[in-house]
Amino acid sequence: MEAVPIKFGTDGWRGRIADNYTFSSVRRCADGFAKYLAEAEGKGRPVVVGYDQRFASELFAAAASEVLAGHGFQVLLTQEATPTPAISHAVMEHGAVGAVNITASHNPPADNGFKVRNRYGAAIGPQNLKRIENFIPDTAEHVAKVRLNEGLNSGSITYIDPGPAYVAKIETLVDLDRIRNAGLNVLIDAMWGNGAGWFPRLLDGASTQVSEIHHERNPVFPEMSRPEPIPPNVDVGLSTTVESGADVLVITDGDADRVGIGDERGSFIDQLRVYGLLAYYLLEVRGERGPIVKTLSTTYLLLKLAEMYDVPIYETGVGFKYVAPKMLEVDALIGGEESGGFAFRGHVPERDGILAGLYILDMMVQLERKPSELIQLLFDRVGPSYYKRIDTPLEASERAEKQALAESADPDQIGGLKVTSVNRTDGHKFELEDGGWLLVRFSGTEPVVRVYCETTEEQRVDPILADGLELIGLQ
């Protein structure tokens, strides 16, 4: 039988369950990762394995654990579905050399994934991802493995609960009592994912009331097309916010490493604005200082904040495989991306949707403002931001043609604004005279082209996007 090719994208590999994502392919991935770790770190060291709420994720995690144990690693397997940031924290807690996380994050329900992390619990850089990929065998026929029960009996596989240590870490990063006693009405949309139960666990016990929706396990993700914290997937949560009279909606994606925010009026606060709020919170409210790391697809508000507070800013390609290494290199205060993934100094260099949500709640409490008022405060300081993204599915046969059109594009104007420069570091980013931008980028994990923009005037958004679509023949 011809081998199904496995190509690692931003965080690892994702595929369609029972199509190319099978127990055989997961074992092949685990074999490649084990060989990489053996070469880079040596055998016999701990490796964490975790998983999400998707169909059969716990069984795929067991299969990966069996292979890692077969290569002589001490496997620490989470005893239940666990948020990605808690898995990353467990890597540091146990002195592990890496982690496997069985999750497709925000992808549609038919997908699952194989994420890999390094000894810091962080995303692995592109060069090493390629090394892992090169170690993956064509078949699982000769892959070494130790059966789960045998591993549990021998101690080569051990169940762990990363929760208590993760909670203890969170308590050092934010004053939970201040939020607990603030009398807030907080609605959590867990998007049927790993964030379920965590905000009540952290905040129950005083005057703040926390309620949840979409907090059971349901791998078909009713009321949304995918557990990605953007409209229309969040529309039920936004309407429930108004119906319940909540002060804020906090949304975590399928594996709880990303966050979305809805205000008290049921309006979605896009993730670029959320990044601006988080940076302002750390710099102004908490008085901290340090570098900011941003991907090229996120907000120019950070450039203004960096200038205002005299801190350095670094721009990377899209994905935490670029953000995490840069954060470690420069000891960044915060790192983040357009998709709603944010990491913070003093914590693991990994996106944490739970901590990001807590920081927004703490900002509300300390400044005594609701989310819509926080946005106005931010805009009063650094000016407005208007953002929108259009995702268009692409057939494999179309991709080369559309990429060629994007590569050759050299417009003088976009959306009526002069193009001041073009950045092709990761995708095709056209900088505009108002400080805004248009980005055309072909996804590394999905058959999708994304066209997105940020600008200073709301009425310019649609014309900019229309011109972006036209550049690649989609308008």
Characterise this structure:
- This protein is of the alpha/beta class.
- It has three domains: 12-162, Alpha-D-Glucose-1,6-Bisphosphate, Chain A, domain 3; 174-382, 3-Layer(aba) Sandwich (Alpha-D-Glucose-1,6-Bisphosphate, Chain A, domain 3); 386-471, Alpha-D-phosphohexomutase, C-terminal domain (TATA-Binding Protein, 2-Layer Sandwich).
- The chain contains 16 helices and 21 strands.
- The strands form four sheets. Strands 1-5-4-2-3-6 form a six-stranded mixed β-sheet, with helices on both faces. It has a six-stranded antiparallel β-sheet with strand order 16-21-20-19-18-17.
- The two termini are 42 Å apart.
- Please tell me the CATH architecture of the largest domain by its name: 3-Layer(aba) Sandwich
Low-confidence stretches: none
Major sheet: size, sense and barrel closure?
Answer: 6 strands, mixed
Round the mean pLDDT to the nearest integer and report it. 95
The CATH homologous superfamily of the largest domain is termed Alpha-D-Glucose-1,6-Bisphosphate, subunit A, domain 3
CATH domain class name of the largest domain? Alpha Beta
Please give the domain count: 3
Number of alpha- plus pi-helical segments:
16
Radius of gyration computed on alpha carbons: 22 Å
- According to DSSP, the number of beta strands is 21
Give the strand order of the largest sheet, numbering strands 1, 2, ... along the chain.
Answer: 1-5-4-2-3-6
Tell me the overall shape: globular
Tell me the fraction of residues in β-strands, as a range: 15-25%
- CATH-derived topology of the largest domain: Alpha-D-Glucose-1,6-Bisphosphate, Chain A, domain 3
Helix content: 25-40%
- Which secondary-structure class do the elements indicate? alpha/beta
For the record, give the distance between the C-alpha atoms at the N and C termini, rounded to a whole number. 42 Å
